[in-house]
Amino acid sequence: xxxxxxxxxxxxxxxxxxxxxxxxxxxxxxxxxxxxxxxxxxxxxxxxxxxxxxxxxxxxxxxxxxxxxxxxxxxxxxxxxxxxxxxxxxxxxxxxxxxxxxxxxxxxxxxxxxxxxxxxxxxxxxxxxxxxxxxxxxxxxxxxxxxxxxxxxxxxxxxxxxxxxxxxxxxxxxxxxxxxxxxxxxxxxxxxxxxxxxxxxxxxxxxxxxxxxxxxxxxxxxxxxxxxxxxxxxxxxxxxxxxxxxxxxxxxxxxxxxxxxxxxxxxxxxxxxxxxxxxxxxxxxxxxxxxxxxxxxxxxxxxxxxxxxxxxxxxxxxxxx
Length: 321
What we know:
Layout: E1 7-8, E2 11-19, E3 23-30, H1 31-41, E4 74-81, H2 87-101, E5 111-116, E6 120-126, H3 133-138, H4 180-199, E7 202-203, E8 212-215, E9 232-235, E10 242-243, H5 262-265, H6 273-288, H7 298-307
Antiparallel strand pairs: 1-2, 2-3, 3-4, 4-6, 5-6, 7-10, 8-9
Helix pairs in contact: 4-6
Domain Protein kinase: 11-321
Pfam families: Pkinase (PF00069)
Protein name: non-specific serine/threonine protein kinase
């Protein structure tokens, strides 16, 4: 585990933002920004676990510093512990890196850089400031100011996203989910990322709200009058992704059960259409605020899917215009 202010490349570790069985995700901030903030406050700045003069040079003035919201001022650092990797996990990581390197797309999280150290493989990823779609659905579109952005000048346009909480109720839908305008917005962006994957003969295999991350809008287009632009959706976590040529089948049981296609749950062979089932399950949650099926285990989940004739049934009153 990396300590606070450990240095990875040009970045200093700030906070832990996620944890898995063999990797931890941290927020990383450009060292030059941290140094400037500490100098302005009179505090000393040094990096633990890295060279203290890694970015040595003339002190930057506030006018020449990068905007803390734009560009790569902040990154998500996925630090993989090498000693926890077995052969299969190593293969998955290599596949994830290979796919991300070739997946430049506005709705797929960007892999910026890889930093290799004695104990860790660090994947420096695009930081998605608004968290994941699961939390966004639960909070009906309300977004709290991330701690890493507190202290921005009140005039900064980024703060427009954090509107009056009462106004946010306009993003809620009639079935405990989100408004149709919001659903269409996210579904279009998810569909765009999926078209890219299929064009490149890739299958994700773990599409779920927790793997759909949200960032400030790149276009600034207003879709809901009186509110800031809706966030952009980014498909993330390609740990289970793999190449799957057209007409080919896969057989590995992987993914998140509540969003997993029934053919995968049965242990059978499947093709890229398995991702479409997962998208349907995400769409249901966008509409209804919960997954289409709830179960204690794979067997119970498959029984409930079969009870519905292998289909996802939306609320009876829901009308798609």
